[in-house]
């Protein structure tokens, strides 16, 4: 199992807009081989931002990497640059391979 996460620092007061963007986007993930689950997580708030993380679970690192090279990935990220005012800085990617699952 491979977990891919992107951390976003969402500008204070723009949280509802950020969540709407994610709710309404065409992810196409349910058509991608090896995809298992997606979660959008809201974390703690700071003075200038609220922390969010997109969390996807994949059958393997290879399945995730295949998706990043696919047309479905390009379609899902086509409008990513049009929401610049929502974020403080760029999203931070973190990838994890499972070493223990219960």
Largest sheet: 4 strands, antiparallel
Mean pLDDT: 91
What coarse outline follows from CA principal-axis ratios?
A: globular
* Overall radius of gyration: 14 Å
* Number of alpha- plus pi-helical segments: 3
Quote the distance from N terminus to C terminus: 12 Å
* Strand line-up of the largest beta sheet: 2-3-1-4
Number of strands: 4
Helical content, roughly? 10-25%
Order of helices and strands: EHEEHHE
Structural class, from secondary structure content?
Answer: alpha+beta
Strand content: 35-45%
Q: Uncertain runs with pLDDT below 50, 5 residues or more?
A: none
Protein name: Antibiotic biosynthesis monooxygenase
GO molecular function: monooxygenase activity
Keywords: Monooxygenase, Oxidoreductase
Domain ABM: 2-96
């Amino acid at each position: 199992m491979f977990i891919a996460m992107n951390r976003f620092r969402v500008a204070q007061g723009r949280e509802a807009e950020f969540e709407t963007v994610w709710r309404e986007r065409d992810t196409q993930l349910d058509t991608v081989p090896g995809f298992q689950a997606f979660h959008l997580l809201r974390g703690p708030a700071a003075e200038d931002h609220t922390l969010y993380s997109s969390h996807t679970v994949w059958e393997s690192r290879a399945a995730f990497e295949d998706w990043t090279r696919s047309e479905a990935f390009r379609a899902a990220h086509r409008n990513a640059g049009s929401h610049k005012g929502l974020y403080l800085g760029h999203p931070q990617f973190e990838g994890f391979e499972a070493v223990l699952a219960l």
